[in-house]
């Protein structure tokens, strides 16, 4: 029982799209590391599959893996929207990427050190209701990167009273002082 919980925490369902337009589905580590020469994933049948990072276009962390007779064999990631229709509301860095094959995709990335220090970018896709929850794009797959916007958190307003506002009730310190 303990081993299965560890397995679930360490491996997530993914669909790996290659530049050759074919794809494969399986289970990959929750945090991808490009220190090795290839991506190692576990197929649903239990076979270990290795894919060279140069061939990987993106790795989509998905809700469900497609079945062998699924209708969406052409696009199992179900990425219907690759661009934001409206300005996103979630905080982060709104990025527009052009990949090596000329395809463009947008997503939200965390505004942290991983943008410059990581081996790839982890993006939240425009349509979070689709099968794809997150997209990992290796750095060598990116031809052009453009920052479309910085989406910040809402600024908190000052809780102090405006200076010209009259008080309705006296504060406890005002009551203790005799009137002048």
Produce the secondary structure layout.
Elements: H1 2-10, E1 11-18, E2 23-29, E3 38-42, E4 48-52, E5 56-62, E6 92-99, E7 104-109, H2 114-117, E8 120-124, E9 132-138, E10 142-151, H3 172-176
List the main descriptive attributes of the protein structure presented here.
eight-stranded antiparallel β-sheet; two-stranded antiparallel sheet; 180 residues; mainly beta
Walkthrough of the structure:
With 180 residues, the chain is mainly beta. The chain has one domain. It contains three helices and ten strands; from the N terminus they run αβββββββαβββα. It has an eight-stranded antiparallel sheet with strand order 2-1-5-9-8-7-6-10. A two-stranded antiparallel ribbon has the order 3-4. A hairpin with a 4-residue loop joins strand 6 (92-99) and strand 7 (104-109). It is elongated, with a radius of gyration of 24 Å. Mean pLDDT is 82; it is low at 1-8.
- Give the tally of structural domains: 1
How many strands, what sense, and barrel or not for the largest sheet?
A: 8 strands, antiparallel
Report the span from N to C terminus. 77 Å
Strand order of the largest sheet: 2-1-5-9-8-7-6-10
SSE order: HEEEEEEEHEEEH
Percent of residues in helices? 10-25%
Strand content: 35-45%
Summarize the structure in short.
This protein is mainly beta and 180 residues long. It is built from three helices and ten strands, in the order αβββββββαβββα. The chain has an eight-stranded antiparallel beta sheet with strand order 2-1-5-9-8-7-6-10.
